């Protein structure tokens, strides 16, 4: 008479364990779904914060004086490019850093701050002399030196080499020359396979995500410059 009772209790225990397993499974599924949802919300918040930051920079920027801003351009360059594009981050990743940025010193004044103020001409002159996108140069300085305020060597805003410079302007020229000849020149010792921010990252910085941070600065700067510059062009056309 005892055997049937044990079998009945065994079946009851089985169903209890099965129900517990099902509940645990549903709990885990709910946790995973909640995690995905939280990640999606966080990504959206980051995107909104970036957009708000660009909007704030735009509101603070002054209008470009186009006649003065374009005075240093040659007639040939003016006929090729007047407007400045606002790139997406993905486009920044693929941007050929040897191509002219189309940006003037007056344009850079819209976005320079802290220790970068007053260096606009130096960045533009370095681009014209060495063929390195000046927005890229300024973005490296923004990242590596907290916009020219924190440097491990005197006037070295780029974390470049192990020495300091007599001035920030000298540092800009030395780094632009080094990037042009060693990082952006196919076949050079430190060429990373493409003349892009990703390519430079391979040999310039140990952090594999360095290019993302530099590209984010570039995207922000181009967004503000593009809007102000192109609005000013429309007023005089």
Stretches where pLDDT is under 50 for at least 5 consecutive residues are 1-7, 64-81
The mean pLDDT is 81
First and last CA, distance? 103 Å
The CATH class label of the largest domain is Mainly Alpha
The count of domains is 2
Structural class: mainly alpha
Computed over alpha carbons, the radius of gyration is 27 Å
Largest sheet: none
CATH-assigned fold name of the largest domain: Lysozyme
What is the strand content? under 5%
Number of strands: 0
* Portion in helices: 55-70%
Name of the CATH architecture of the largest domain: Orthogonal Bundle
The outline comes out as: elongated
Sequence of secondary-structure elements:
HHHHHHHHHH
Tally of alpha and pi helices: 10
Description of the molecule:
With 237 residues, the chain is an all-alpha fold. It has two domains: 1-60; 64-236, Lysozyme. The protein contains ten helices and no strands. The protein has helices spanning 2-60, 66-69, 75-80, 89-94, 105-108, 120-130, 134-144, 168-183, 197-204, 210-236. Helix 6 (120-130) packs parallel to helix 8 (168-183). It is elongated. The termini are far apart. The model is unreliable at 1-7 and 64-81 (pLDDT under 50).
What is shown here, in short?
By secondary structure, the protein is mainly alpha-helical. It has helices spanning 2-60, 66-69, 75-80, 89-94, 105-108, 120-130, 134-144, 168-183, 197-204, 210-236.
Name its key features.
mainly alpha; Lysozyme; disordered N terminus
Helices, strands, pairings?
Blueprint: H1 2-60, H2 66-69, H3 75-80, H4 89-94, H5 105-108, H6 120-130, H7 134-144, H8 168-183, H9 197-204, H10 210-236
């Amino acid at each position: 008479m005892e055997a049937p009772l044990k079998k009945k209790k065994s079946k009851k225990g089985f169903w209890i364990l099965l129900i517990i397993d099902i509940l645990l499974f549903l709990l885990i599924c709910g946790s995973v779904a909640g995690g995905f949802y939280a990640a999606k919300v966080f990504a959206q918040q980051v995107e909104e914060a970036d957009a708000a930051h660009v909007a704030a920079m735009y509101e603070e920027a002054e209008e470009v004086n186009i006649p003065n801003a374009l005075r240093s351009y040659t007639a040939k360059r003016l006929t090729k490019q007047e407007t400045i594009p606002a790139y997406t981050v993905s486009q920044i990743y693929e941007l050929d850093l040897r191509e002219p940025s189309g940006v003037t010193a007056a344009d850079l004044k819209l976005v320079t701050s802290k220790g970068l103020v007053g260096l606009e001409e130096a960045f533009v002159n370095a681009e014209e002399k060495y063929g390195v996108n000046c927005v890229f140069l300024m973005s490296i300085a923004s990242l590596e030196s907290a916009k020219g305020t924190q440097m491990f060597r005197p006037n070295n805003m780029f974390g470049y080499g192990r020495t300091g410079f007599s001035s920030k302007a000298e540092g800009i020229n030395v780094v632009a020359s080094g990037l042009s000849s060693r990082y952006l020149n196919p076949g050079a010792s430190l060429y990373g396979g493409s003349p892009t921010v990703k390519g430079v990252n391979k040999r310039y910085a140990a952090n594999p995500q360095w290019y993302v941070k530099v590209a984010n600065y570039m995207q922000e700067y181009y967004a503000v410059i593009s809007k102000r510059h192109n609005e000013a062009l429309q007023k005089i056309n």
